[in-house]
Every structure is written in structure tokens, then in C-alpha cells.
Amino acid sequence: MTTVTLQEAKDHLRIPEDYDDAYITGLLAAAEGHVAGYLGDDLPEPMPAPVRAAVLLLVGDLYEHRERQNDRALYENATFHLLLNPYRSHEVL
């Protein structure tokens, strides 16, 4: 299985209802696109557990911080990089 499913994302977010399905599907597409760009290649197939976890981590961040402005500082999650760095393409362009 290559992509993270809507049900996996909803389980990760702990959302049993269906009212945000379209929104979460969009977040999944954005997160997978960002992860693929960060890796410098297409998403690996089959998708290793650390890459899957990074996609879900990003979906969670995007869902939780859906507003552009916050009243508190947001910090980059180092776990995202720790999960993905072993899978990054190191090709010289």
C-alpha cells in the first residue's frame, strides 16, 4: 500500500465522524506531496513505517493548526526529520 488511507488518518486524529473527510483527504494529499518533495523523489513503495508516520504527523499538525495565525509560537517538529532523513535522495542535481 503506497498512500496513507483516510481511515488511517482519521484513526491517527481520533476523529470518528465523517464530516471532515473531504478536508482530511486534502490534508493527506498535501502531506504526501510535501513528504515526497522532502525526500527528493516519489514516495517509496511500499511505504516504510517511518515515512507513513511522518505523513500522519504532518496531517496531525496541519489539522491542529489549520488557521494561518496563532496566539502561540509553533516550532518545527524534529521527529519529522528524524523519520524521513534516512529515506532522502542524495542525488546531486
UniProtKB/TrEMBL annotation:
<dbReference type="Pfam" id="PF05135">
    <property type="entry name" value="Phage_connect_1"/>
</dbReference>
<dbReference type="InterPro" id="IPR021146">
    <property type="entry name" value="Phage_gp6-like_head-tail"/>
</dbReference>
<dbReference type="InterPro" id="IPR006450">
    <property type="entry name" value="Phage_HK97_gp6-like"/>
</dbReference>
<protein>
    <submittedName>
        <fullName>Head-tail connector protein</fullName>
    </submittedName>
</protein>
